[in-house]
């Protein structure tokens, strides 16, 4: 597993990671989620010994990366800036990784097969599409059959088929009992992939819980009500918070049954009564709103008619 204690990284006057405490456990896909600049890549680089913490510690299986006797056998990583030599074939690239880490050459064909690159194993990496390059990077991460897998934005730039593939691979690796730690800035992607979520903003942890708990804590429920008489409906629901959305009202703070009963009691005709949960994307945006460095302009819902 991965464990961070008060992990901190300063760059000149910028604080990239600000005292993170974290345990990433085996058997789960843990999503590491945060807006751009939240500190995800920096944290991953420190896990992999590529950046030194300013203070605090981070360990893989109880040791810091530099103390691992055979790092690639313990932790495999796909980082955003994974360098692939364009003139080298996929097989050559993996062979070199295997040799320099005393991993049997037979493992090269196994991982090529695992990531679906067997047919193009002798093509130069420079001719690969982005998706093929990501697969090759993931093959490199898995070559040592590591118990811990760290993937930084693995679905960036992939097509839907590639995204599905990464998702099912992550699931398989976790089901095999491995620790799978995957960063993304897309909540929608994590919602489909992760069992557990760690959300960061401005270098700090904003949430660390199961996906289910995250939903419960952060996604709000609303009920969409369509009625030919919105003003009468608003009058009949004095306790609720209302907003107008097209020709419907969005009601917060009351359940569908309660709303239906209140409107029936007040003689207000109802054409639609639909419970809705805000998407995880909304929950994520709400949670990280203060941590986002750059905002796009947004608009607020129209007021309910008096
Ligand atoms: N080498 C560096 N020198 C100076 N500042 C850096 C360096 N690396 C990262 N930072 C800063 O640290 C902060 C965190 O960056 P980091 O790349 O870890 O975030 P991130 O969550 O991975 O974002 P993204 O999704 O955009 O990759 C940012 O403000 C970034 O500008």
From TrEMBL:
<comment type="similarity">
    <text>Belongs to the ABC transporter superfamily.</text>
</comment>
<dbReference type="Pfam" id="PF00005">
    <property type="entry name" value="ABC_tran"/>
</dbReference>
<dbReference type="InterPro" id="IPR027417">
    <property type="entry name" value="P-loop_NTPase"/>
</dbReference>
<dbReference type="InterPro" id="IPR003439">
    <property type="entry name" value="ABC_transporter-like_ATP-bd"/>
</dbReference>
<keyword id="KW-0547">Nucleotide-binding</keyword>
<keyword id="KW-0813">Transport</keyword>
<dbReference type="InterPro" id="IPR003593">
    <property type="entry name" value="AAA+_ATPase"/>
</dbReference>
<feature type="domain" description="ABC transporter">
    <location>
        <begin position="2"/>
        <end position="227"/>
    </location>
</feature>
<dbReference type="GO" id="GO:0005524">
    <property type="term" value="F:ATP binding"/>
</dbReference>
<protein>
    <submittedName>
        <fullName>ABC transporter ATP-binding protein</fullName>
    </submittedName>
</protein>
<keyword id="KW-0067">ATP-binding</keyword>
